[in-house]
Amino acid sequence: MKAAVGARTSDQGRARIMQTLRYSFILTRQALFDPFRGHVLGGLWIILNPLLITLVYLFLFNVVFIVRMNGVSPSQGSYTVFLLAGLVPWLTMQASLQRSPTSITANHSLAEDNNVPYASLPLRDTLMSLPTWIVGFTALGAYMIVGREMHWTLLLLPLLLVVQLALTAGVALLLSAVGVFFRDAREVVNSFFLVATFLLPIAYQPDSVPALLQPLIWINPFTYMVLCYQDAVYFGVAMHAYAWIVFPVIALVALLLGTRVFARLSPYFGAFR
């Protein structure tokens, strides 16, 4: 009897997960393409928007700020490759998490009226950032082919994407649940991203930062994601071997924590809409 009940509970759990994922993909497709119906360029804006944002950051760091690396030999590759290696995944993460605090509050009626699982909403925001990642690394790959700066470690990019999606999903679930009860969460997250772009080792090597400020880099969990991408894309070797351990661990902890907090708080969402 207990075995039968346990098996039935397990089957129901798997069914709920599959339903949540199915709705996540449906909502992602709608959110990506529906806003551009009737536009002259249509779905091309899905490519153009992340491409334009990436070009703006390239201009800022390469021309306006004139940032240069310390401790990296020019023979290892161009500064553009180094910059985009960390910038593209960070912009992808940013695009997802800035929407997360209002995932539930802004779409509560959508979930209620269409029987959509609440968890599908932050997961939709996670998947919506994929065009930024795909467009960014496709453009970077073309640039590297022309400049003959390819490394075999580029084959690790799909693995890094999976880990990044796990991290993003976990944080998105956490922020969306907290955002229902703490409405200032969106402003806090936006302020964090405003500052974090310059505190992450995207445009510089960590060793080039004064020792007094280095703790700000190492306590940031997203630092290890950036370092892994730079190893795979720019250096071609595991220059930061510790990051390849810390990054997956942080992603797993974030996913488990986000899932647990979301499950605990979701029954009370209706009272705070």
TrEMBL record:
The UniProt record lists the keyword Membrane: yes
Keywords: Cell membrane, Membrane, Transmembrane, Transmembrane helix, Transport
Domain ABC transmembrane type-2: 41-265
Gene Ontology molecular function: any one: ABC-type transporter activity
InterPro entries linked: ABC2_TM (IPR013525), ABC2_TM_bact-type (IPR047817)
Membrane topology of the entry: Multi-pass membrane protein
PROSITE patterns: ABC_TM2
TM regions (residue ranges): 44-67, 127-146, 153-182, 188-204, 241-263
Coiled-coil intervals: none
Cellular compartments annotated: Cell membrane
Pfam family, one: ABC2_membrane
PANTHER family hit by this protein: CAPSULE POLYSACCHARIDE EXPORT INNER-MEMBRANE PROTEIN CTRC, INNER MEMBRANE TRANSPORT PERMEASE
Protein name (Swiss-Prot/TrEMBL): Unannotated protein
Organism: freshwater metagenome
